[in-house]
Amino acid sequence: MREGTAPLIQRLDYQQPAFWIRKVDLTFDLDPAKTLVTSKMQVERNRSVPHGPLRLHGEELNLLRVLIDGSSVSFRQEGNELVIDNAPDADFALEIRNTTCPEKNTALSGLYTSGGSFFTQCEAEGFRRITYFLDRPDVMAVYTVTLRADATKYPVLLANGNLVSSGTLEEPGNKGRHFAVWSDPFPKPSYLLAVVAGDLVAREQRVRTRAGKDHLLQVYVRRGDLEKTEHAMNSLIASMVWDEARFQLPLDLERFMVVGVSDFNMGAMENKGLNIFNTSALLASPATATDADFARIESIVAHEYFHNWTGNRVTCRDWFQLSLKEGLTVFRDQEFSMDMAGTTSARAVCRIQDVRQLRAMQFPEDSGAMAHPVRPDSYSEINNFYTATVYEKGAEVVRMYQTLVGRKGFEAGMKLYFERHDGQAVTCDDFAAAIADANPGSALATRLDAFKRWYSQAGTPRVTAFGEHDAAARTYTLRFTQQTPATPGQTDKQPQVVPVVMGLLDRHGTALALNANGDTEQVLVLDQAEQTFVFENIDSEPVPSLLRGFSAPVVLHDGLSDAALLVLMRHDSDPFNRWEAGQRLALNRILHALRAGQPLVLSPVFIDAMRGVLNHPELDPAFKELALTLPGEAYIAEQLDVVDPQAIHAAVIAAQTQLASALRDDWAAAFEAHQIQGGYTPDPVSSGKRALANLALSMLVLDAQATGDTVWPGKAYQRFKDASNMTDRLGALAALVNAGAELAAPALERFHALFKDDALVIDKWFALQARAPESEGRVFARVKALTKHADFTLKNPNRARSLLASLCMFNPAAFHRTDAAGYVFWAEQVLAVDAINPQLASRVARAMDRWAQLAEPYRSAAREAIARVAAKSDLSTDVREIVERALA
Ligand code: 0A1
Ligand code: ZN
């Protein structure tokens, strides 16, 4: 956030603060241009650390006065710190008054305005942009908040906890103003404070929990958005029920509020009892949101709700421990989504989607300039570490605990964790100790130190497996090796603890017994650089099915032949590995073509296998859609030492075109067979059918482009016009746009006219165009033109991301151009956004993380663009850290 070079903060430098703040009384006199903040704090010296001055954080504040026990006190300002050298030894009352300017706060951190209302965002270090404070998560205080504001413009005044009183302000000078006093009984770190004031309306629901307690649930949004809150409310209720049933964790507040805001840097925020959501993660109606939006909203509502225990009741000692709350809460929301999905197949679909996301986002992070451990060792801007590694890899680490101690063992570990640490700010070591101590003698407890390398070592481990059958001895020997590649600042890596869930199949696909008990599935635990496992009574060469359910976040090389992969794809009892086998068949072909520098030609065997999936009488449509979708370009790039984005794109398009043509009749049949009669529901079965129908349609339109047929584009246009829900409408529009059909232009125009007043839908309109497959530079040119569109702005993060992130991060072939125009555009946009919103700018800046793996001429041009940005003297610390790490 701050300009200039920020100091590098090191994990091992952690020290407790010199003072504790136990109680805070905050008053906000809200005004968009100048809000007055009065903070009265109860402060005490921390006697377990050396005597020192009181140093409070404060940024972009206008300080009015500082009083200790009612008298003025001498202080000095050192950079962004307010230093009081002569603070008393005994407990004291500290009062600070300052003002801030919410309407100029385009960084959206601290107190800001959006659509004429006030909102706050305090994680990670936004509270210091509201008032001076010990703004660190280990300082936990009880807060009372008084809000005073114009009653007409801001009829709703919200803060954390319970409403104590409210009314009209009577004093002269406060005409037309009203107030509300909120009190939160739970001690919390400052990053969980929240304030909202505006003209909002709420959907309300009273619920009774299993424990017999009554609660009021409220979802606050702008007038006019109320009918789009039903799904969020249902998701909230389902989350409450689930957390009580699965982990015995009840809601601890009488009132739980959720608020939507259009300008927000992330998805949502778990402020105690007052979650604040990006509207994109909250609002849904069948006409405006896709199935994917409905699923995302359910999972984000759950995620924030689950933070109430994993994050709020037990929080992080310091920001290096971020994955303590984030990895665990992502794991919990993933488990919730799987339980909500229901059937084994629907659960597998969730798992496949999560792994696809991990591979598309976290694997590249782990092999690029920003590679860092799940528990980072240093940062200069903590906002840069809300990453796929901390979140998604962190969730995989939590999943491995569960795999190693079993589901019941994990639940026992969670129980112990809360018994030990409720109300505390703790570390990842405390979590690990609780899970291990609740499971003495387990595969985890016996190798806990080695397991914890998942927190300290960056990089994705490479595991190889080599199987050998001894016909005479009737044994099958599996030999594993593992090695983790070097990452910035970490060259030597130790072996990791890798749980490999596995089974063996014979060549007809029958599961083999792995031991005398007749078990057909087992967990092998790797913890050495090399290890061997022997299976007895194996009559013939089996096909190993390893890493079922993606039991560890590693890259596995098992050298299986295409024939063996076909056995797995057709017969494995593990649906994840069935999907994986199909993906690997496709990947093998694409990589072979890329490495040989030859055009890609899909084999008849592969095409038959895909046809078998598409026409399979028992597989679910949602699974079929995933199995028939080719690996993404980012994941393909991950497999290569030198990345040529244009060559990858050409190979993927060739594969798609061949699959579209070879299965033409099957796609048409699948499209017709998966039409849904009746009203829209976003359940997994219906959304699976819509997904497969949309994939079929996109293949048919793509094929029509090649053959000159006009029937399918016409049908797609008709479907686009007539669709009764956004999934089908956007699916048909995407089919036209992605194929480059002539009807794409009128369809886009019509779509814009239909939804011009719905910002979230217009975001989709921008994103669809920016993510379209590149062809002769047309997509890039279109994006550049769209930056000049009347609806485009860099000030709204959703809108800015809809074009910039879509192009620079999700459309490699449009972005990486031989003329370097993509990089020039990137540099311009990063600098323009940085002046408005550094957090947003640094996210876009990360599009260049993997520049060093690019082939020439991309590599040199990319480096030059990064160096040009780095040469600017007035960069935010956010962007500076990203570009400097890239160049290091
Ligand atoms: N803790 C939130 C994510 C979040 C993080 C930072 C923010 O502002 C910089 C906002 C939200 C979550 O995990 O949902
Ligand atoms: Zn979170």
Automatic annotation (TrEMBL):
Its EC number is 3.4.11.2. Residues 562-888 form the Peptidase M1 alanyl aminopeptidase C-terminal domain. One of its GO terms (molecular function) is alanyl aminopeptidase activity. Residues 25-192 form the Aminopeptidase N-like N-terminal domain. Keywords: Aminopeptidase, Hydrolase, Metal-binding, Metalloprotease, Protease, Zinc. Gene3D superfamilies: 2.60.40.1840, 3.30.2010.30, Neutral Protease Domain 2, Peptidase M1, alanyl aminopeptidase, C-terminal domain, tricorn interacting facor f3 domain. Its cofactor is Zn(2+). SUPFAM superfamilies: Leukotriene A4 hydrolase N-terminal domain, Metalloproteases ('zincins'), catalytic domain. Belongs to the peptidase M1 family. This is Aminopeptidase N. It comes from Pelomonas candidula.
